[in-house]
Amino acid sequence: MDGDNADQGEIGKFDQDASAWWDAKGPFAPLHAITPLRLDYIETRIGSLSGLRVADVGCGGGLLSEPMAARGARVTGIDLAPETLETARLHARASGLSIDYREIAAEALAAEAPGRFDVVTCMELLEHVPDPAAVVEACGMLVRPGGAVFFSTINRNMRAWLFAIVGAEHLLRLLPAGTHDARAFIRPAELARWARGSGLEMNHLTGLHYNPLTRQYFMAEDTRVNYLVHCTRTKS
Prior knowledge:
The protein has eight helices and eight strands; from the N terminus they run ααβαβαβαβαβααβββ. With about 240 residues, the protein is an alpha/beta fold. It has one domain (about 10-235): Rossmann fold, CATH 3.40.50.150. An eight-stranded mixed β-sheet has the order 3-2-1-4-5-8-6-7. The relative contact order is 0.15. Pfam families: Methyltransf_23. Pathway: Cofactor biosynthesis; ubiquinone biosynthesis. GO terms for molecular function: 2-polyprenyl-6-hydroxyphenol methylase activity; 3-demethylubiquinol 3-O-methyltransferase activity.
């Protein structure tokens, strides 16, 4: 396992709640709520996942890995949080799903299996690692030419700080306080630059929003806070 591009404090934060990953009302409730949106976005952009080889980078407890596998994808989920991965393995087994969960860094898997995957997903991870550009590069290496890479992260500006930290963590308490560090948020232009440098072409960008009155998440064009990106590996 190569954990050089990992913050042990971040890993510890997620591992301390490892048993609660599949509690839809627990600390990961927002991820449960947005997973159907993320899944639909992926299939809207590329079509059916059935039969595709997918790497879920920063898979956590498997909240996205499992529904992708249920739709017929051959999923490899990777993470550096061991207790979280054990929760993912146990839940997949109980759900009757075959998912290859591995405790390995994206960079190490990319060196081991370059171009092996049709699709790579990297959701809510980039803002939690010391060198997000290196993860983007690894994702570009993992996907085959013409394949798709999906990122989800948080923009860096005052509005994002107000909504993602003050609002979500302290006022609405959608997430535990301290989940995010605003200094680690990533502007779309930065992500686009890293993607281009990694052989990826950014095809589409959309925003992810929360309505506190209806308690519903939805997608819209505004990318000033949370956003999702669809990239394609350039053919060469």
